[in-house]
Amino acid sequence: MRYMGGKHRHGKRLAQVISEYTKSGAAYYEPFCGALGVAVHVDAESKHLSDAHPELIALWQALQNGWTPPEVVTREEYNEIKADESAPPALRAFVGFGCSFGGQYFHSYAKKDGRKGRSEYAANAAAMLRKKVAKLKNSNFYHSDYQSVKPENAAIYCDPPYKDTTGYKGVKFDHSEFYQWCEERARDNVVLISEYDMPEPFREVLSFERNMNINARVKTRKAVEKLYILGD
């Protein structure tokens, strides 16, 4: 499922580093779990995945319980579900993220991705979710702000809204507050953060160039993605 800021294309690379800190049995926590681009590849005995978006968490919980998302969503259905806040939250998350252009929540209806013969977004999103569900058996999902996540002796991976970027519509993110939370959590855990740049005492452990466009075939904008650690 396409998701703004998701790590679908680089999740395995990040998970290889993160798994070094869970292989001894430490639990894995991800308080900005999003579309699970990293979490599904992390090798951990238990995973605790949360997000501040309640409908997104409802989607993952529904999938764990056997819910099957639709493979066809028409423009009319998209607009109806967008307008109906009483619609099932799992369905709203699936349509809002999986059937919107760029993976931005109810940004605009997207039918094709520009490649000839490619099926509509709903079918692609449903297929991707089916693959991920098989890897969720040891995962626990809950709706929570990142500040409520307070484990001990765990590996915490964070993929927050990046500083000095457009970010998520309607979301105000205090990066200074987030840095303070990371330092507090690092007293009892290993904290890893994806960002373009982090201040000291965060230490860079991985960097790689990535395409900033959600369509992998469009390669006009590049950025250097970095993984930082605190508490090692």
Counted by DSSP, the helix tally is 6
The residue ranges in which pLDDT falls below 50 over 5 or more consecutive positions are: none
The CATH topology: Rossmann fold
Q: What does the largest sheet look like? A: 7 strands, mixed
Largest sheet strand order: 3-2-1-4-5-7-6
Q: Beta-sheet strand percentage?
A: 15-25%
CATH classification, class level: Alpha Beta
N-to-C span:
33 Å
Task: Name the helix and strand elements from N-terminus to C-terminus, one letter apiece.
Answer: HEEHHHHEEHEEE
**Number of individual domains:** 1
CATH architecture: 3-Layer(aba) Sandwich
- Can you identify the CATH superfamily? Vaccinia Virus protein VP39
Helix content: 25-40%
Structural classification: alpha/beta
What is the C-alpha radius of gyration, as a whole number of Å? 17 Å
Average per-residue pLDDT, rounded, comes to: 88
Number of strands: 7
Question: What best-fitting shape do the alpha-carbon axes yield?
Answer: globular
